[in-house]
Amino acid sequence: MARILPQTKSAAVNPLKTSQPLGAAFAFLGVDGAMPLFHGSQGCTSFALVLFVRHFKEAIPLQTTAMDELSTILGGADNLEEAILNLKTRTKPKLIGVCTTALVETRGEDSAGDIADIKLKRVEEIAGTEIVLANTPDFDGAIEEGWAKAVTAMIEGITRPGEQVRQSKKIAILPGWNLTVADIEHLREMVESFGLKPVILPDVSGSLDGTVPDRWVTTTYGGTSVEDIRELGTAEHCIAIGEHMRRPAEVLQKVTGVPYVLFQSLTGLKDADSFVSLLSAISGASVPAGVRRRRAQLQDALLDGHFHFGGKKIAIAAEPDQLYQLATFFTGMGSEIAAAVATTDMSKILEKVPAESVQIGDLGDLETLAASADLLVTHSHGRQAAQRLGIPLMRVGFPIFDRLGSQHKLTILYQGTRDLVFEVANIFQAYRQAPTPEELDPLRKRETPDGPRSSPLTRH
């Protein structure tokens, strides 16, 4: 069990974590026709918008209640109501996801009560639009908690409660924030290959997959429909991916009675086998030949790649679930986790990270702990530390703004694990340094009673 070391610094040096409101907005962006709304100042929204645009290289629908000095003192209920009505009139969203920021949370505003009043007073004006609130103060948690809170809020606010007639082939899937667009697309294809019908919440593969619409769309286009969220209770089973998705899965079970199974990771042969076995058991179908072939390809990749991983020291900085996903992958390949840094201590999964300790901190902590590492693994803000240490950087997570196509990078199941093996092995090969003569022959400068002599290998 890893020891969790708390943060002791009073300031972050090269911050690692991203805020809760951004995580909640990220989840809302996985719903079709949605508009995330930051309840706070314009600066909070601008910062999140810049990170989203730099990461995805897309136009991101994100709005703000634009609280100023006066509304901060007197209260932001009027700003919230005005913003909701303007969005309804101008963009006609199917869902408005309200994400509170530190400004209103510190002030102690009753955002839930304000939204309830708006719904009561403005029944006709907002008809046809769901309004969901996620309480996500910037000063607490990180992107992981924000994503989970938004998914929980959508289930509590939209999903029809009560036991319902189940559709035997329908599977609700609650993916963690760290699954990429490619991961979710691959996940859907895998489930469908067993004859099952997946409903994925949130589904960023439909809205942030880099396609160009044939017309200007003011909200998200693609993703989980509001109607699908409403009918989640008709699913036969629920599969949650990542420890931070346990709470949304529990809420779905409580509201509708749909049982759930939680996978803490889908990366690696063992976890992929467990997932495929579950799909086979649910569907009653045998594993398709294509899936078996991809498993065989992974086995071959493991044989080819493990030579490059053995004994390597890895330094990772990430959100708790992604830290666990990557750390178990590397140790499974024979590497050692030399440094593990997480954003928060709010997840129980940290205790299972295969490392002696997990430091709650920032990229400054990672740089200090990673001096002897062979590979640095974190997002794009770790590039300066990697350069100073002279260590290669493997970019993962959010944000990745200095490389293209990060959302199309596959990291789960047989094919994604295979791709990770190749990516890491190629990094090690590209940065391999030629050994010096002394390293090849340690006896080269051996001292003798008659003085220094050369190795037999160097004699002429």
From TrEMBL:
Keyword entries, A-Z: Nitrogen fixation
Keyword Transcription: no
Any one GO BP annotation for this protein: protein-containing complex assembly
Basic and acidic residues bias (residue ranges): 441-450
Molecular function GO terms recorded: nitrogenase activity
Disordered: region residues: 436-460
Pfam families, per the entry: Oxidored_nitro (PF00148)
InterPro entries, sorted: ChlB/BchB/BchZ, Nase/OxRdtase_comp1, Nase_comp1_CS, Nase_Mo-Fe_CF
Pathway named in the protein's UniProt entry: Cofactor biosynthesis; Fe-Mo cofactor biosynthesis
Domain Nitrogenase/oxidoreductase component: 19-428
Family: Belongs to the NifD/NifK/NifE/NifN family.
Reported function: This protein may play a role in the biosynthesis of the prosthetic group of nitrogenase (FeMo cofactor).
Name of this protein: Nitrogenase iron-molybdenum cofactor biosynthesis protein NifN
Organism: Mesorhizobium temperatum
Primary gene name: nifN
